[in-house]
Every structure is written in C-alpha cells, then in structure tokens.
Design brief:
Elements lengths: L1 H4 L23 H14 L11 H13 L3 E5 L2 H11 L7 E5 L4 H9 L3 E5 L10 H7 L4 E7 L9 H9 L9 E5 L20 E5 L13 E5 L2 H11 L15 H32 L23 E2 L7 H14 L3 E2 L5 H4 L1 H6 L6 H7 L2 E4 L7 H21 L2
Parallel strand pairs: 2-3, 2-4, 4-5, 5-6
Antiparallel strand pairs: 1-7, 6-7, 8-10, 9-10
Helix pairs in contact: 2-9, 3-9, 4-5, 9-14, 10-14
The structure holds pyridoxal-5'-phosphate.
Length: 399
C-alpha cells in the first residue's frame, strides 16, 4: 500500500544538523537597525504602531521587484491565499486543481474557502504541477488552477494560462491561475518574467523558513488586476465600512524589516544557489542519488535541495537512508513534501476517492538533507561526505 511507502521515519538520534533550517533568509545589522528605528518611532503615543508609511513602501518595492502592478501585504501567506480565494466566492462544486505534492496549508485554504480540491500529478522532473495531467482533470466546473512553484523551481505559467483559455467555465469564463510562490520569492519563470508577474494573483510567504522573512510571519499578494487589489485591501481591513472583511494587516515592524530583506533577497538567493550547485557537484558520481535537475532556461532557488533515491529504494530504502544519516552521521533530513492527502485528515477526507500514484511514488523516493546558505564550507563538505557514506552504507546493507 503506497500509504506505507510514504510513512517517514522519525529518528530520535541527537542531530548535529537539524532536519530543516528554522530560518531561511538571515538578518544583518540593517534589519536590526530598521527594527530599532520603528521601535523608537512607535514610542510616541501620537504615532504608535500605525503601519504607514512602512507597509505601503514595502508593497510598492515588492510590486516593483516582482514586476507586478500591485502588491497587498498580509499577516501570512496562508491568509493571503485565503483572501484571494474568498474573493471568488466559490460555490459548492466549484473546482480548484492543484498538485498533490504540496504544502498542506494551500490545500486546507482551498477547502476552507468552499473549493472542491482536485488533485493532479507532478511533472516527474521539476515536481511542479504537470500541465497534461491538469488537462486530464479540468472540467466545466474548474474555477481555479492553483500552481505552486515547488521548492524554488519556478514553473512555466504559460501552459496553464493556455489551458484555462481552452476550457472556460460556462458562467465565469476561463479558470483563474493563482500562483503559490511561498517557496520561490525572487525567482524567474521560464518566460523570463519575475515570479509574481504572471497569472491572476501570486501569493508569497515571509514565514521564518522562507527565502526572506518579516520577523517570522508575513505574506503578500501580487496582481495586475486593480479590482482584485482594491477588494483585497477591503478584505484585509474589515471591509472598509461596507463589506465583510477581517483584520489581516502586516505590522509596521514586519514591513520595515521586509524592505531590507527584499533589498538583500537576490544576494541571499545567489548564496543559496551557489551552495546547492556545490552539493549537486559533490554528489554527482553517486549512482543512487538523483540531485535536483538543472533545466535549461530555469532558475532554481533551492528552497529545498531535494534528492531522489532509486525506485527500488522507494519507501523502506529511503527511510533507511534518512535513519542512517541521522543516527550515524548526525545529519537530519526531511521529505518535502508527501502528497497532502497522506499527511492531513481533512484533506484526506475531502479528496476521498482521488489518488495520485505518480506523486506517491515520487514522494516515497524524496529526501532533503539539511542545507542552508550559512552552513560553513568545511561543514558543507562534512555533510556531503555524510550523504556519500550513508548512501554507501544503505547500498551495502540492501545487497
Ligand atoms: C509556507 C507556505 C505557504 C503558507 O505560508 P504561511 O505564511 O506559512 O501561512 C503556502 N504555500 C507554500 C508552498 C508554503 O511553503
């Protein structure tokens, strides 16, 4: 049963390197200075913690960086996605197509906003939503294609925009393409566009583990649709005395720090990419491990440096490797991520009857040993050696 294949080991060995880094983007004196300044300014009772002008300045800078007309800040990526979906007022039976290999939060948001979640397979190379499998499951009830740029590998948005045009909903027209770029901030898609410029709306997260972070939580939506921008602002601040809404504002301190993180984003991403390429090179001659693909014309930001073990190692062999890495070498690793319906009861119940065998098989072969751009060069080499030795140990024990 593939569900067993996707049961991930949880070693209790003390780790020298954790299963995943707790922080993605890191801070410098500039972020500390910005936070200090905001604290000092907010001490005045006439000013307090009012978000302006910081939030607007962060939104403008973010929209410019993402090549989008507008950006609207939120207190998290999850609420940002929920509000974009809320705007569509999905009715029971309205379908949202999304890749089965995903972050559960994205699928929980779809279910919470009344969408019927339709799962589709990943492309076996990029692990991004497969356009042809999306075409297989698209119907006249499809309202949204939710495309996630998986683990920093920017997907091509164009095939999904074409697909939407060819399969219009009878009432609402072509399904809308919503892009989840929580793990791809600062990326470029194969069309050459910045991540955030294509599709109806793109969602970003600045949670602590993401490529840039606004004090541990935060989110953003970019769009070229002025109507959506206006409605999102309303939703974010109690409907602005006319409609339903709630309070999901980003704080002034988050925005002030976000401005600095954004200015440093390319530098942080470059460091991450360089390190990932070093790991790929260091592991290149290990026959059992397939590193992330380097696809022509695509910039991978390596939010995760995912390795794939051979088919014959799927499940048990991969788990052995994770255990050996942890127990003998002190190196944590994680599966990013199993199909959402195997890891979350609500998603499993909601999608009962749907299965994505390709996603399950790929997930059973995935592991991501800990990586972070701030790991020193000597430690990087120790980690790469650990992966090499652990793989050889497992190969030997499997005969
Ligand atoms: C982190 C993440 C989210 C949600 O963002 P939060 O800010 O943590 O709510 C959504 N989708 C993906 C792919 C993510 O990695």
């Amino acid at each position: 049963m593939p569900t067993d294949l996707n049961t991930v080991p949880r070693s209790t060995a003390p780790l020298r390197w954790p299963v995943e880094p707790a922080q993605g983007g890191w801070y410098t004196d500039a972020e500390h200075g910005a936070a200090h300044q905001v604290f000092a300014e907010s001490a005045d009772w006439r000013t307090g913690w009012r978000p302006e002008p910081y939030v607007s300045r962060f939104e403008e800078a973010f929209a410019a960086h993402a090549g989008a007309g507008f950006a609207v800040a939120f207190n998290s990526g999850g609420t940002a996605l929920e509000m974009v979906l809320h705007d569509l007022q999905l009715a029971p039976g309205d379908e949202v197509i999304s890749c089965a290999l995903n972050f559960v939060g994205a699928h929980v948001a779809v279910i919470g906003q009344c969408g019927t979640l339709i799962l589709a397979e990943p492309d076996p190379l990029s692990l991004n939503l497969d356009p042809s499998d999306t075409e297989r499951v698209i119907t006249p009830r499809t309202r949204v294609i939710l495309l996630t740029h998986w683990n920093g590998m920017a997907a091509d948005v164009r095939p999904f925009l074409d697909l939407a045009q060819r399969h219009p909903h009878p009432v609402h027209g072509p399904p809308l393409v919503i892009v989840d770029a929580a793990r791809a901030c600062g990326g470029t898609t194969p069309s050459g566009a910045p991540v955030g410029a294509e599709g109806w709306a793109t969602i970003f997260s600045f949670e602590t583990k993401k490529l840039m972070t606004t004090l541990g939580q935060g989110g953003m939506v970019t769009t070229n649709d002025p109507g959506l921008e206006e409605r999102l602002r309303r939703l974010r601040t109690y409907g602005r005395s006319r409609h339903w809404g709630t309070n999901q504002l980003m704080t002034k301190a988050q925005a002030a720090v976000g401005l600095i993180q954004l200015a440093r984003l390319d530098e942080m991403n470059d460091a991450r990419i360089a390190q990932a390429h070093r790991r790929t090179t260091a592991l290149a001659d290990i026959p059992e491990l397939t590193p992330p693909p380097v696809l022509h014309g695509r910039r991978h930001l390596y939010y995760r440096h995912n390795l794939l073990v051979p088919d014959t190692w799927a499940g048990a062999g991969r788990n052995d490797l994770m255990d050996v890495l942890a127990e003998r070498y002190g190196l944590g690793s994680i599966v990013n991520d199993p199909p959402t319906y195997l890891g979350h009861d609500l998603v499993r119940h909601h999608t009962a009857g749907q299965r994505c065998p390709r996603a399950e098989q790929l997930a059973a072969r995935l592991l991501c040993p800990c990586s972070h751009p701030q790991i020193s060069r000597p430690e990087e080499e120790q980690i790469n050696d650990a992966i090499r030795h652990a793989t050889a140990d497992v190969a030997r024990s499997r005969g």
